[in-house]
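Course assignment 3, question 2. Fill in each field.
Student: A.L.
Task: Predict the tertiary structure for the chain below.
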Amino acid sequence: MSDSANTVTVYSTTWCGFCHQAKKYFDSIKVDYKDIDVEKDPKAAEEMVKKSNQMGVPVIEIGDTILVGFDRPKIDTALKAAGITK
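Answer field:
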């Protein structure tokens, strides 16, 4: 399934505790995600800021939804809306 509406991207850094929590949560519910380290990839950092209007991490992109921070209820809602979970 390579439909972009069904993809999850986590823009993160190695030192961000909430980034680790978000990725651990996706792992625990068996949701695949693409992890982008914005410290190592300046172009991705720029893209993240354009999408979220935020410089903080994590920025989580689920389908067409952009979430800033680790907010489990909002993540669950976005995953359902994108058809990734039930």
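Instructor remarks: Strands lie at 8-12, 34-37, 59-62, 65-68. The longest strand covers residues 8-12.
Grade: pending
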